[in-house]
Amino acid sequence: MSTESLTAKLSKANTNMRRLCEFFVARREWTLPHDGEPAARALGEATLGVGEELRSMMALCGANPVGERIPDVESLGEGTHDTARLERFISFLRDLRVWFSAQSSPPTDSDGIAALREMDGHVACMSTIIGETLKRTPASAPAAPAAPPPPPEPEEAPLEANPVEFEKRAPQLVLDDTESNPMVQEFQGRPELTPECEKLADAYLAAWDLKLSYFNRKKLLERILRWITSAPAGQVLVIKMKTLEEPYEPYPSYVSREVLQQRQLPAER
């Protein structure tokens, strides 16, 4: 497993959220293009999703929210957002939410807790600005003047959103929960992985020569259950390995079902 501390990963995530927040604060007066409203609404939902995970972790370590944190950046005046960029931000935030949901415990040191609180403030600020943008943008936005050069894209999420595609072994495990091939079932009123899903997970681990203890296997299966049940609408869970060299680390990502069909990526069985 990764030796990078949780606090270090939270610090990286906080840097990403601060950059995103600065991006939107500088463009607080911008409007959406004619096709940008769905992306902006999805971005707002993804931002709130990260906020929910943040507050859950903060509650576990007894940290209180600090309210909006508005970065001191210069306004770029009027302009129009780019839908493709908004969609990239959506993917980043969804990956970040999945990473948060996979954590088994909160930080216990002051730096880690401080990063959580700062991040929560940035999320609150972003949520406000996205809501203001949706209210201000007319149904048919006029053409905007050329936008200034874009800032650097945010750093990768704590667990990389775009890993290397491995040529050896089983590069990924696709777990598509459908009525015809369910990955999750209910037992005594509680959701659990189906035996078929557990077999797929075990086969994937075996392909990577990963021999987990009973406890670690159970913990991974619990995470897979959370990853599947928290999949955004129309998205499919795809588990990959973070590195090609030991120690291997399974981690989640999501791909739209439509994209999977286009790529013709069959689930390992």
> SS-based structural class?
mainly alpha
Report the strand count.
5
Any low-confidence stretches, pLDDT <50, length ≥5? 140-144, 151-168, 265-269
Number of domains: 2
Please tell me how large the radius of gyration is: 20 Å
Describe the protein in words.
The protein is mainly alpha-helical. The chain folds into two domains: 6-136, no CATH class; 172-263, no CATH class. It is built from seven helices and five strands. The protein has helices at residues 6-26, 37-60, 83-101, 110-136, 195-207, 214-229, 257-263; strands at residues 172-175, 184-187, 190-193, 235-241, 250-256. Strands 1-4-5 form a three-stranded antiparallel beta sheet. Strands 2-3 form a two-stranded antiparallel sheet. A hairpin with a 2-residue loop joins strand 2 and strand 3 (190-193). Helix 2 (37-60) runs antiparallel to helix 4. The chain is globular, with a radius of gyration of 20 Å. The model is unreliable at 140-144, 151-168 and 265-269 (pLDDT under 50).
Explain briefly what this protein structure is.
The chain is mainly alpha-helical and 269 residues long. It has 7 helices and 5 strands.
Topology, element by element:
Blueprint: H1 6-26, H2 37-60, H3 83-101, H4 110-136, E1 172-175, E2 184-187, E3 190-193, H5 195-207, H6 214-229, E4 235-241, E5 250-256, H7 257-263
Antiparallel strand pairs: 1-4, 2-3, 4-5
Helix pairs in contact: 1-4, 2-3, 2-4
Descriptive keywords:
269 residues, mainly alpha, three-stranded antiparallel beta sheet, 7 helices, 5 strands, globular, disordered C terminus
